[in-house]
Amino acid sequence: MASKNPSEESKQFIEEGYDKSAERYLEWSRSRPVSMQHRLELVEKLYTHLGVSEDAGEDASRELKVLELGCGAGEPVTLALASKPAIWTVTANDISKTQLDMLSESLSKLDVGSAAKKVKLAHGDMTKLEFPLKSLDA
Predict the structure, then answer these.
(1) Contact between residue 40 and residue 74 where contact means Cβ atoms under 8 Å apart
(2) 5: closest CA among 91, 125, 113?
(3) Boundaries of domain holding 48
(4) Which CATH number is 114's domain given?
(5) Is residue 26 part of a domain?
């Protein structure tokens, strides 16, 4: 039986590690409000960069498409992105299937209209993702 190349073995090791520690990692992240706030501030900077306003009516027709790499369980960034009317699609990528399952569970509990429908989960290695040229806004 042929062995995997070292790069693939490393990625499998990383995936298994994040799968095993997913719940602990989310708890750890939640216990650091300064870090969570910083992430949300970065999301606000993205909105500014994209020209997304606070006026939901103005932005509802923008249909922006955003890719989030290494989304984990989606807190707080994926959930914040999905709640913005101008953000039409969030492709949430993570190497950990467990992390994405946790995000899916969080999305199923959302009571914010169609926010959960905006998120498309993309399991796998971020370096292997392919998108048509200019198909994403951020």
Answers:
(1) no
(2) 125
(3) 10-128
(4) 3.40.50.150
(5) yes
Q: What is the C-alpha separation between 130 and 80, in angstroms, rounded? A: 24
Q: Which of 38, 131, 47 is nearest to 93 (CA)?
A: 131
Residue 133 lies in a domain: no
Quick one: tokens of 46?
């993205």
Residue at 95: amino acid letter: I
Compute the CA torsion angle 43, 106, 26, 12 (nearest 10 deg): -100
Taking residue 16's Cβ as centre, other Cβ atoms within 10 Å add up to 13
Written as six digits, the tokens of 113 are 């209209």
Handedness of CA 56, 81, 104, 24 (dihedral sign): negative
Per DSSP, what are the bridge partners of residue 67? 91
φ, ψ dihedrals at 121, nearest 5°: -80, 135
Say how far apart CA 98 and CA 6 lie, in whole Å.
23
- pLDDT tens, per residue, the chain with 138 residues: 555 666 888 999 999 999 999 999 999 999 998 999 999 999 999 999 998 876 555 555 578 999 999 999 999 999 999 988 888 999 999 999 999 999 999 998 876 567 888 999 999 999 999 999 999 999
